Amino acid sequence: MVHTLTGRKIAIVGAGGQLGKPTLKALLSKGVHTITAIQRNESTSQFPSEVSVKRGSFEDEFFLVNAFKGQDVLVVIVTIPNMDLGDRFIRAAAKAGVPYVLPTEFGVDAPKVENEHSMMGPKVARRRLIEDLGVISWIAVITNIWLDLNIQIGLWGIDVKGRKAEIFKNADAKISTTTISRSGEGVAVLLSLPEAELAQFKNKSYYYSSFELSQRDIFEAIKRATGTRDADWDISEKYAIEIIASTESKIREGDGYAERYRLFVMYFQGIQGANYEDKAIDLEKYGLPKENLDVVIKQAIAEM
């Protein structure tokens, strides 16, 4: 089925970042969008010639409002240390009359786990701020936990380089997970929809995923990618409830890794929001082929 692409003027904050780059690439590949990268003065990121670049201070509302004027969509993809700037971008977008804002989500469905991670409350608050302003709409892009990045970080409980695996007992649910590249491609599909279809996501979440996997599924794929067997690994099993309890003191001390690790374990326990396959958009209908798990895992490990 051929889908008609609708071109838009899209401003991106964070176009040179880890998710920004594949998102920009996917949007440009559609050949119908006019893209503007909003950058700090001191940024050294380089972009293709077809991308307009506006540089200024993110503390300067006048700069932001003028940079956002005439845009159809604002996509905000900032790192955790810069997430507090989100309100500033939103207020400037409202003053500039930008119809749609994709705030920094691109992960778990924040309202579902608002009490389980300190980063979720601010995300929910930004959705409410947009609604309270009453002149723009948010769309929350939900990709859940990134598969490839977190193999490299070790948050799946598997240390590839050290050949160690901590298996979460009584936590064998399958969760929705997405690769970084597919995350960017999903945004491009969304923002290329005809207006009548895009409008259906006003102040709603847009779900998609690459795979539906358990922790054991991920471990088996890693073993295939590394040509190893259980005997080659230091494997321990620990009850999920014990792992969660062991993170509490670290989280109180401000250990961000421990807070994320706890959320991963809880996801495999099957908490709300861990699996949304029943709501996920079928991206194959929009020309994106299904990803190959073994290829994704091998590439993630090769990049470590």
Could you say how many structural domains there are in total?
Answer: 2
Relative strand content: 15-25%
User: Could you name the ranges where pLDDT drops below 50 across 5 or more consecutive residues?
Assistant: none
Determine the CATH superfamily of the largest domain. Answer: NAD(P)-binding Rossmann-like Domain
Question: In angstroms, what separates the terminal alpha carbons?
Answer: 38 Å
Which sequence of SSEs, written as H and E, runs from N to C?
EHEEHEHEHEEHEEEHHEEHEHHH
Give a count of the beta strands, DSSP E runs of length 2 or more.
Answer: 13
Structural class: alpha/beta
Radius of gyration: 20 Å
DSSP helical segment count: 11
Trace the largest sheet across and list its strands: 3-2-1-4-5-6-11
CATH topology (level 3) name of the largest domain? Rossmann fold
The best one-word shape is globular
- CATH C-level of the largest domain: Alpha Beta
- Give the fraction of residues assigned to helices: 25-40%
Largest sheet, if any? Answer: 7 strands, parallel
Q: Which whole number gives the mean pLDDT?
A: 96
